[in-house]
Give the backbone structure.
Amino acid sequence: MSTLEIKDLYASVETKEGRKQILKGVNLTVNSGETHAIMGPNGSGKSTLAYTLAGHPKYEVDSGQVLLDGVDILQMTPDERAKAGIFLAMQYPVEVPGVSMTNFLRTAVTEVSGKAPAIRTWTKELTTAMKELKMDPKFAGRSVNEGFSGGEKKRAEVLQLEMLKPKFAILDETDSGLDVDALRVVSEGVNRAKAKNDFGILMVTHYTRILKYIKPDVVHVFAQGHFVKSGGPELADELEETGYDMYLPEGADSESALA
Amino acid sequence: MADQKEISIPVADPNDPYAVPAAMPSSADNAPRSFAVDDFAVPTRKQEDWRFTPIERMSEFFDVFEPSGLTQVSISMIDGSPVDTSSVDIRTVKIGDDLSGTVSKPNDRVSAVEWNSENSATIIEIKRSLDHPLLIKVLGTDERLDALHLVIAADSQVHADVVVEHYGDAKLAEGIEITTGDDAHISTTFIQEWDRGSKHVGNHRIHVGKDSSIRHSVVTLGGDVVRIRMDQDFGGEHGEINMLGIYFVDPGEHIEHRTMVVHNAPECRSRVVYKGALNGKGAHSTWVGNALIEPTAPGTDSYELNRNLVLTPGAIADSEPNLEIENGNIVGAGHASSVGRFDDEELFYLQSRGIPEKEARKLVVRGFFGELVEEIGIEEIATHLMQAIDRRLARGESEEMKNVLEEK
């Protein structure tokens, strides 16, 4: 049983117009086995929160703490955070030319688990996971994310989630750009990995459709750099109806992606 | 005396004036070719050929010297087994005798100095096709100046692979002549894994026979100052030259490769692909790729490419493709050159999967070179090269560790 506690987190990013604070007092506690959906209008800082937790150098923490089982991960490099048990499934996974998926996954698993996986069980585990995600076995030999379609990239992210077995998975718009079938396959992959490893999930999304497949325990509304409302799964349906306008200040442009 | 090469320029057809350009002398390849040192001025940074080179760090190679003779050369098959002398004739001759000096002539002062300093040449004449690569190990044992002259000659219709490995501690001026008969298909691979502080000037003179192909690979992974110049031409139609280069440069090192491809015969094909990674402040690489398509070479297909990956700030990569086309009737003549930084997003992605920064850089460099090595298509050579690259990447690690320990 693990706990991830975000305490009064403030973070900024350097922009052309100067330094801009995006996260303004984020507070959240997630336990193993819990699924938290984070919803909110465009530009509210949801992705910034995801990247800040993973340690992207672009985002600078101004104050606050992020405790994983009582240890502040904000002092750690991104690879140390991964080893501690944080996994970020990215909205736009990066292409790494020349590095094969197999080589990359094996290196990552070796680093995260602290020892090289035994060849036989490793190959079996990888083949099974790829099959379940309906990934072409040829992907293993291709360069990381290079020439992958949007859907293939998301499957590859979930494959990594299954292989790396984190304590907490942050899914940053994993549902974006997926057709109905791919959404189901990807969601099933997340559920399978969760059933096996019982990790906590922070799921950033614009749409309620993924919530049909990955059932949230808690739904949060994120606006203006912090959480403004939390509730049960029914809150998602409510947002579907009303949009985010009520959470934005008077006169603010709502770019709500909720159709 | 210096020879100015004479080329016969075809007369333009009045009905198709663009098939042959106006008669004019080549500017890309107007340097003299000569065995006499004094036909070449002492290099300065003001000369086009030397403007990227830190000449003060290699001035010992500018005048004829007495070679130490301490460089050790051993020749075997790649697995260490002895060479079948009925397939390969290996002999040492007085320089200028036998096949030595038959492939073009020195093209700069250091090459002429090598020729005039060295007393003997090793001739490796491949008479029959080889099933496995031949391995020539060149071991530097001493920091005194030495010279070495090798001739690799493949008879007509021979298929063979040759690997030349350089390692140890050296100050070496090296001349290599590579030549084939007709319809021969060979690969020659040169690996430089010199110890820190070593210096190496090399001159490869390459002649591709009619209907023949040569895959020429250069992999430079170490040395304080390394400058290797390749000069190549064709002996007839349908020749193919594939030049491939890999270099890895550490702080304070200068690694320079200059390729000169001369299309002087019809319907020949050339590819030059060099890739380098630079690591750390003061690492300096130079690639100058010259391609000359002479009026006598219709149907030429030529392409050259150089990519540089700068891993950490403060490294300098000079990259200069030069292309001179004197014939309008060609298939293609392209070039590309780039210097790029190791992408921060790539680094973050790998790190976010638990891979530490240093390991991530290694993974990316290995991939960057691996793509090129795969293209060689000869498994024994590819494996050999990847082993050398892995050794080099691992060495970086232990060096760093050493520095940490020394600082304590």
Remarks:
- Confidence is low (pLDDT under 50) at residues 254-259 of chain A.
- The interface with chain B takes residues 54-57, 77-79, 81-83, 87-88, 90, 93-100, 103-104, 107-108, 111-112, 143-144, 160, 164 of chain A (CB under 8 Å).
- The helical segments of chain A are 46-54, 78-84, 101-113, 119-132, 150-164, 180-197, 234-242.
- The first helix of chain A runs from residue 46 to 54.
